[in-house]
Amino acid sequence: MYKQSTKNATSKYFTSVKTNHQQIKPFNRLVTIKRDRSQALLRFNKPVILTEHKGLALLVMTDTPDKKESFQFFILQNAVQLNAGVYFNTLSLTAECKLYLEPSQNEEPQIITLKEAIKVEKEIKRLKIENVFGLDYQVYSSGERILNHPQNYYELIIVDQGQASIEVSYNKQILLSKNSAWLIFPGQKNQIAFKEEGMTTLISILFSGQGLAESIAQRPIHLGHRQIQLVSRLVNLAAISEDKCPFYYDEMVTSLQLILTQIHNGENKTETERSTSMRENYENDLFQSIIDFLQENVGQLHQVNDLVEVFNISRSSLQSLFNKYIGQTPKQYINSLRLKQSKLLIHESKMTLSEIANELGYGSIQYFSRAFSKEFGISPSNYAKSIVK
Q1: Which residues are CB-neighbours of 179 under 8 A, at least 6 positions away?
Q2: Which stretches within the chain are classed as H helix?
Q3: pLDDT tens-digit map of 52-63
Q4: CA distance 230 to 228
Q5: How many CB atoms lie within 10 A of CB 243?
Q6: Is the predicted pLDDT of residue 388 greater than 60, yes or no?
Q7: Are 263 and 205 in contact (CB under 8 A)?
Q8: In terms of DSSP bridges, do strands 145-148 and 14-17 run parallel, antiparallel, or are they unpaired?
Q9: How many other CB atoms are found less than 10 A from the CB of residue 81?
Q10: Spatial distance between the Cα atoms of 220 and 89, rounded to a whole number of angstroms
C-alpha cells in the first residue's frame, strides 16, 4: 500500500502545496502517463511542481539513483513541489492517468537510465469468499452426534455456548470450548459429539471460497474478541430480511472474509509479534475477567456500575477497555449478552417470556420484546414458536 502525498505526508524530497482549482493550467504542461513501469528518471536543477488531474499517479523519488533502498513512493494527491535536484518519475496506477508537470522557467530535465526498471507493485488479494450458502444456529443436548460427510464446500463451526468434541479419527478427539472454531475443508469429514451435561449452542456457516490455507484446517481456532463480535453480527444478519437491510448479504460475505483473514494473519505472526508488553497483558487479562464475570452473572449483575464496583475500575477506563477490544460500549455489550442469554433460556428452560424478561432485568415484557426484535429481527414470541422442543 502506498502513502498519499497529502499535506500530512512528509518527505525530504517534496513539500505539499496548495492548489487553486479555479486557475487554468497551461495545456502544454498536461502529461498523460500510460505505463506502470519505467527505467528512466528525470532531474531538474530547480524546483518543479506536479499537480494531479485525472486518475492516480505514483510518484517515485530518490537522491541516489544507484541505491534502490533510497527510493520513496507516494500517490500524487493535489500538488507537490519537488526539491531541486531530486530524481523522479511518475507511473500510472489507473487506466487513465494525467497530471501537470510545471518546471521553473521552462527548464528541460536531465534524463538518466536505470539498470533495473522501477514498477508499480500491485497487492495480491489472497483470500476470497465467493458465496455464503447458509448460517445455522442450533442447540444440541448431551448425547447427540453430528456426522459430517465429505462435501464440496467449506464449513466453519463455532461453539457459542457449552462444549463440542470433534472426532477427527477413530482414536483422536479434540474438545472445543466456548468461542472456539473448527474449519472443515472440502473433502474432509468429521463427527461432532456433545457430551457435556446441559445444552451446547453451535453456529455452522457453509460457504465457498479460494485461497484458504490448509494450516488452519483440522485444528481448534480460538476466536478473539473482535472475531466474536463479527460472528454475533453474522448471526443477526442471517435473521434479517432483505427489505429491512438491502445489503445484508454483502455484509455477511465481508464479515466472514474478515474473520477468516484475521485467523490467517494470526497464524502467520512470529513469536516476536505475538509478544506484548506487561501493560497489554494486564489489560487483556482484566478484560477477559470482566467478560467471564458478565457471562456468569448476567442474570443478577447487568449494570455498568456493577462492573465499576466489582473490579474497582473507573467508568472511563472501563469504556476504554471495551472500545479497544470489541469496539463497543460496556452497556452495548451487556445488552447484547442479555439478549443472547434470553435465546438460550427460550431454548432450554420452561420459563415464560415474562419470567425470562424479569430474570434478565428488563423492566417489562414490552421492553424486552422491543429489544429482542431489534437485535434478532424477530419477536421473542415468534422465535419461541419456531423452536421444536
Answers
A1: 158, 159, 160, 222, 223, 228
A2: 225-238, 248-268, 271-274, 278-297, 304-311, 315-326, 330-348, 353-359, 365-376, 380-385
A3: 999 999 999 999
A4: 5
A5: 7
A6: no
A7: no
A8: unpaired
A9: 16
A10: 50
Strand partners, 79: 17, 51
Size (the chain), residues: 389
Cα–Cα distance measured from residue 289 to residue 277, given in angstroms and rounded to the nearest whole number: 18
Of 72, 92, 119, the position where a domain reaches its end is: 119
The 10 Å Cβ neighbour count of residue 352 is 12
Residues 91 and 67 in one domain: yes
**148 and 256: one domain?**
yes
- Bridge partners (DSSP) of residue 135 are 205
- Computed over every residue of the chain, the mean pLDDT equals 86
Locate 96 and state its grid cell. Answer: 487513465
Strands 72-75 and 98-103: unpaired
240 or 49: which leads in pLDDT: 49
Beta bridge partners of 87: 43, 62
Q: Cα dihedral angle (121, 123, 126, 132), rounded to 10 degrees?
A: -150
Report residue 215 as a C-alpha cell.
Answer: 494450516
Going by C-alpha positions, the residue among 342, 163, 312, 284 that lies closest to residue 292 is 284
CA-CA-CA-CA torsion sign (63, 67, 70, 74): positive
- Of 6-15, 204-213, 256-265, 312-321, give the lowest mean pLDDT range: 6-15
- Residue 164: domain span: 128-269
C-alpha–C-alpha distance, residues 375 and 370, integer Å: 9
**Percentages helix, strand, coil for the chain, rounded to the nearest 5?**
35, 30, 35
CA atoms of 374 and 377, how far apart (whole Å): 6
Confidence (pTM): 0.66
In this structure, are 216 and 311 located in the same domain? no
Residue that is last in its domain, among 269, 294, 313: 269
CATH number of the domain at 367, please: 1.10.10.60
Question: In this structure, are 226 and 294 located in the same domain?
Answer: no
Tell me: do 361 and 317 sit in the same domain.
yes
pLDDT at residue 315 is higher than 60:
yes
CB 89 within 8 A of CB 117: no
How far CA 337 is from CA of 87, 253, 297, 340, 360, in Å, comes to 59, 24, 11, 5, 10
